Each structure stands twice: as C-alpha cells, then as structure tokens.
Amino acid sequence: MTMQGCVVAVLCAAYLVISFGEVQKQEESEDYDYDYAYLPKNCSVSESIAGGWVSYSEGGAAGSTLTYHCEEGHYPFPVSQRVCSTEGEWSTMRLANGRTVAQATCKEVLCPAQLQLDNGEFWPREQWFRSGETQEFSCQDGFTLYGSAVRNCTPWGEWTGTTPVCDDQVDDCMNPGTPPGALRSGDHFRVGEKVQYRCHMGLDLLGSSERVCLESREWSGSDARCLAQFAFDSPNMVAQAMAGSLAGVMDVTSPEFKKKVSFGRSIRPGEGRLNVFILLDNSGSISEKHFLEARKAIEGLIRKLDSYEVNLKYEIISYASQARNIVSIVDPESHNADYVLHELREFKRTDHGTKRGTNLYAALHMVYASMAFLKESKESKFNETQNVILIVTDGQSNTGKSPKNALMRIRALLDLKDSLDHTHENLLDVYVFGVGSEVRKKELNEIASKKQKEKHIFILEKFKDLGEVFDEMISDSAVTMCGIAQESVKKSKENTRPWNVEITTMIMGKMENCKGSIVTQNWIMTAAHCFNETAVTHPKTVTVKHGKHEVKTAVSVILHPQYNVRGLRHKNVKEFYDYDIALIKLNQSIQVSGASRPICLPCTKPASSALKMGPESTCEQHKKALFHLEETQAHFLTKNYERKQTHIQTGAKRLECIKHAAVTFSPETTVSLTEVVTDRFLCTGGSQSYKDAVTCKGDSGGSLFLRKRQRYLQGGCSKLGQQGCVLQTIKDT
Ligand SMILES: *[C@@H]1O[C@H](CO)[C@@H](O)[C@H](O)[C@H]1NC(C)=O
Ligand SMILES: *[C@@H]1O[C@H](CO)[C@@H](O)[C@H](O)[C@H]1NC(C)=O
Ligand SMILES: *[C@@H]1O[C@H](CO)[C@@H](O)[C@H](O)[C@H]1NC(C)=O
Ligand SMILES: *[C@@H]1O[C@H](CO)[C@@H](O)[C@H](O)[C@H]1NC(C)=O
C-alpha cells in the first residue's frame, strides 16, 4: 500500500512538472512549429453544439480551429473555439472550476442586474435578466434621478440607456453610480476621496476600477462597466462610443454648421493634426479569414479618416512574435492615404514566418521609437499633435515584456504624468478592440485610455464587426460635416444617402413628386421644372420629406430667374431646361444626423474642406479637381433609392455625349445643339464605352453626386432620362 501511494505521488509530481513545462513553453516560445517526425492527424469535422452549428478553419487539419456558432441572443458554452492538436484531438473544454465538458451547448445571453442604487429603489431584484426584460429605478424624496428610469436587456447582454444615479448635489463630486453587475465601495464624494468597483463573479471590469474626486469636482478616469465573459459589445454601441471620442476629435465643423454638439472634450483651435498608429494582431490564432476581415475594416477606417479635414499621418504595424512596420509614420508618404492603403494591401502575413506569438510590447515599442523620432525632428509640431493608437487583437497569448512598460515610455515621451488615471491626457488616446471570446480583458483594460465620458476598450464578437463599427461611427450624428454617408446598405438605407429628400407639390389637386438634396440645414436644392407658379406663390403646398420620415414644409420656393421652359418655343423647342434649378427654404432647420445631412456643394467653403483644398480655393479649382478627366464617375439614386453609377463626360467627350441628346429633338426645330444644350448642362452616360444607367421618372431634381475621398459632392440635378443620355443642369452660381 505504501509503495503504491508513493508511486502515485511521484507520477503526480512528474505530471505536474511536465504540464508546467508546457505552459512555460506556450508562454515563452516564440513559435508554434509543427515540425514533427510523424504526420499530424486531422481532427473530426463532425462535431456538434446543441442549439447551434460548427465551422472549421482548415478542414480539421492539425493547428486549425473549430468555431461554435449560436443564434442571436445565445453564446457557445463553455468555449467558442477549439484548436486541433497534432494528435488529432480538439482541445479540451473546461469550466471555470477546471471540470471538463464533453459537449458544447448554446446558452442564452443574460444581462447582469443593477445590484446597488444609493438613495433609490430598483425592481425586480434578480441577478440576471433575459433579453427583452426590463429593470426599473426610482429615487427617494430629495434625490433626483440621473440616467434611465427603465432599462431593457438587449440580446447582446447589455442594457439600453444609461446607469441610474440618485443624487442631491450636496457633495463635491456627483454620485458616480454603480453599473449593472458591480458593487462599489466608498460612499464619500468629497474632493480627494476615492471609490472602488468590483464586478460580480463571472464578469470582467472594463474602465476605471478606482476613481478619485478631483479638484475640478469630476471623477478621474472613465466609467466602469462589467462585461460577462460571454458578452460582447454590439457594433452599434461601439460605433456610438467611438463617434463621441475619436470622431469628436476629428470633427472640424464647417463654417455653416456652428458647433452645436459637444464631445466632452475640447478641441484646441489650430489643432487638427493627428498621428494614427494602427496595431494589427497577426499571431497564430488569427486565421487568414480574420486577418482579411480586419484588414478590410482598417482600409475602410483609413478611407473614412482621410475624409476628415485634419492633417493625418499613419503608421501600421503588424505584430506576432515580432512587430513589423507595414507603413512607418516617419515615411514621407505616411500622410498619403492611397500609399498607406497600397502598402497595407501588399503586406503578406507570411512575412512573420512561423513565429506567431502575440508580442504587443514589441508593437508598442515600435510606436515609441517612431514617436521618439518625430519628437527629434524639429518641424513636426509634435507637441501639438494628437496621437491615436488603435490596437486590434484577439488577445490569446503574450510573449515579450508587458505592454504597459512600452506605454509608460510613450507617456513619458509625451510629457504626460504617469498618474493613477489618464483623465486629461490630451495628446494620447489608446483604443483597444478585443475580438472574440478568448481576449484577456483585464490585460487589455490596463492598456486602454480611461477618459471621462468616453470609452476606449471594446470587446467585439467577430472581426467582421470591426468593419461595421468603422463604417458607422463616422456617419453618426456627432459629425456635422457635409457629404458624409455610410457606405454599406446593410442597416438603414437613409444613411447611405442622407442628403436626399422627397419633394411633394400639389398641382391642381394632384400630387407631384420630385427629389432634391439638402444643401444646408435650411435649404433644399432641386430642379425648377418640379414647380410651377402655384408653388412659388403658395409655398406651403410644398412638403419636403427627409431622413427617417421627417417632414418639413416650404416657406419659399425660388426658381432660377433665368429659367424659362418656354424660352425656345419660337424655335419649336417645346421644353427648354437651361437654368433648371430651384431652392426651397424650409420652415424649420434640419437636425443633422446619420440619416439627414447636407451634401457638399462645389464652390462653397465646406466643399473646399471636403476636397482638402483650403479655404481660399476658387470655384474654378473645384471644377478642375472634380472633372480633371474627360470622363468622371458619378452616381444618382433611382426611384427605389438604389445608387446607380454613371459617367459625366467633359472636354471633347462632352460633345459626343450631347449629340446623343439631339436624337430627341423634334424634326421641326431650327435650333442648334449648343443653343438647347447650353454650357450649363453636364452630360452623363451616352458614350460608346458605357451603357450607363438612365434616370427614370420620379428622379427629377435629385442630385447627381460625385465621390471624392469618401465625401459626396453635388454635380448637378437630374433631368428626365432620354434615349440613354441624361442631361443635368449644372449649378450655375
Ligand atoms: C487533413 O485535412 C486536410 C484538409 O482538409 C486534407 O488536405 C488532408 O488530406 C487531411 N489529412 C488526413 C491525414 O486525413
Ligand atoms: C510646442 O513647441 C514649440 C517649440 O518648441 C513652442 O513654441 C510651442 O509653444 C509648443 N506648443 C505647445 C502647445 O506646448
Ligand atoms: C401649373 O401646373 C398645372 C398642371 O401641370 C397646369 O394646369 C397649370 O396651368 C400650371 N399653372 C401655371 C400658372 O402655369
Ligand atoms: C414645419 O413643418 C412641419 C411639417 O408640416 C411641421 O410638422 C412642423 O411643426 C413645422 N415647424 C414649424 C416650426 O412650424
């Protein structure tokens, strides 16, 4: 008996040593090489998950991954991914307590409950809520409720609205509240006093775990929140949060739209210089598909950022066991988005070789080195430049030193005090996007900036969500610039054409429809032929629909004074469309949002900004920039709001294009072509090389728009299409 006991003990010890050694190897070794003497076996590809489905990255080959998928509102338990070992076994699934689980299941996503509300009541009092359920809050007498009185649990496991707080304005700082799933210690809110947060078991804390009431009577750091291991931030929430900070930094208001939105941070005048460092995880756990999705999202982000009126420079770093520069900020071309995008596309993942650990430290150190170089070079205005570091990671492992060390050096370089909080760090923003269920939230939370009323760390479910976030965040209502639209049609169609309006006029008791475009918050531009005198004398009969079913009425309709449809009747031209342009003044300003915003009008200051041409640029320069080729791609919307492509013909090609229009002339006419199709017309489509879309009835007055650097500018107004050739009257003023 004793002998047996002894043997067991020795075996256990040996086992412990071996497994410890393995852990060490995983953490330290920089490569996962599968160079074994025997052929690796494949794993089974007939795995299942109760209530969901399974996908395989490389047909179950050794080293590949299996992913569990569940319906919306559900998550795979206990893991979402497994890795195939060289023995042909999928990695073991374990619970938090170490017990193994043979079969994965889809579980319902739940919202953690509000557990604490000082001086208030909340009900129902449960630990977890299901999607669709609500929790309600109220305050005791003498206390005012800030935040939401009712919150709904969403399928993402996050609540709608904001954390409820009952406050009586007696203390220096306001009651900092307690987010759902958390408990707070510290009940005194005078200057210098601290509060601490911890999350309920199974939840990870993001944001500041400790906050101090500052002299300014604000709390240091950012709001804490508790995220369940299985829960992710919805792309929508992330986009909104980003719009409030990154987009806020970037938004330079056009002169027409005086800043009405405040972003919780001030933009110093004359600023508008930004260094963007993008750190892309390329470790072994990131599949080719995920890399391509992340790259696509970053391409989208760069194009979007490039549309802002800010001086930008980029650095893109791919990191695995080592960091590699895709583009360095010290490169003279680092401000050129086309160059940056080209370099990004050329980058091969295989450049990292087989060393596929995750060395975030190395990547951040590379950022530090670049910043140090910029600081040395005198003319870079380094001390006035905002530095934004965006980290995209699946956060599975970490080789190398602690990323925090590298950040400390960056902070020192920027002369930022390395205090407990980074509440007022004007020159540095560190955003972290953790993707997937394996991210180490705690570690990433330590790296992300913590600023008042802002979020810098986000946990997304899929790499694909990144693209959605970057597309959405900039057309959010926080951004007031003209000519911005969402590119993807997936969500709300309005956001892909926010300048578009529907105009309804009553002519002889009959409704007539036209389209127009928002050119300022109070003015709509459309075609003059949409109206007759009745509209001009009775503007109230004209209604304008914009955004999501919002309606305004006209207070005046102004046709171009030289517009005269009968102007060439004496020459047998029935309808003459020179100066076919009209303006409608609205009874009320349009509130700028993702679904309603002006298009940029060439020859205006906002258009100068959109074209990055400086405020002094002339109308002629705008024209050159927009039509420097003989054929310019342009778009218009069909009756069903599909974006159709056409081509504006200029120079020699214009004449050819116009000739096609002549086909529609009445045989009795005695006019020359250039008399009817004056210089104020743009000619689209019609050339031999394209069979361009033709505008149809109902499109009249809509904009013909051009896209430059993700910004949209109006080219002209649509006229009825005829015989494959569409004529547009160009803006004349
Ligand atoms: C393993 O899977 C890969 C990819 O499906 C396949 O090409 C290979 O032949 C398989 N190997 C074995 C030993 O079955
Ligand atoms: C930045 O540095 C320059 C030159 O050293 C100095 O003139 C300027 O005032 C500094 N700007 C700020 C915002 O500190
Ligand atoms: C306005 O339009 C209607 C219908 O097209 C037409 O009958 C009417 O004569 C027009 N009014 C004027 C003043 O042109
Ligand atoms: C403007 O017109 C719309 C639509 O007719 C109406 O709902 C709104 O109340 C009007 N606003 C003002 C300020 O008159």
UniProtKB/TrEMBL annotation:
Gene Ontology molecular function: any one: serine-type endopeptidase activity
For this UniProt entry, which residues form the secretion signal?
Answer: 1-21
**Cysteine disulfide partners in this protein:** 139-166, 199-226
Enumerate the Pfam families for this protein.
Sushi, Trypsin, VWA
Q: What cofactor is needed?
A: Mg(2+); Mn(2+)
Q: Which domain of life is it from?
A: Eukaryota
Q: Where in the cell is it found?
A: Cell surface; Secreted
> Which residues belong to any copy of the Peptidase S1 domain?
484-725
Identify the GO cellular component terms for this protein: cell surface; extracellular exosome
For biological process, the GO terms are: complement activation; innate immune response; proteolysis; response to bacterium
Xref: InterPro entries: Compl_C2_B (IPR011360), Peptidase_S1_PA (IPR009003), Peptidase_S1A (IPR001314), Sushi/SCR/CCP_sf (IPR035976), Sushi_SCR_CCP_dom (IPR000436), Trypsin_dom (IPR001254), TRYPSIN_HIS (IPR018114), VWF_A (IPR002035)
Q: Does Heme count among this protein's keywords? A: no
Active site, per annotation: 529, 580, 700
Domain VWFA, chain residue ranges per copy = 275-473
* Coiled-coil stretches: none
Gene3D superfamilies xref list: 2.40.10.120, Complement Module, domain 1 (2.10.70.10), von Willebrand factor, type A domain (3.40.50.410)
Where it mainly occurs, coarsely classed, is other
Record-linked PANTHER family: COMPLEMENT C2, SUSHI DOMAIN-CONTAINING PROTEIN
Q: In its UniProt entry, what is this protein called?
A: C3/C5 convertase
Question: What is the species listed in this Swiss-Prot or TrEMBL entry?
Answer: Megalops atlanticus
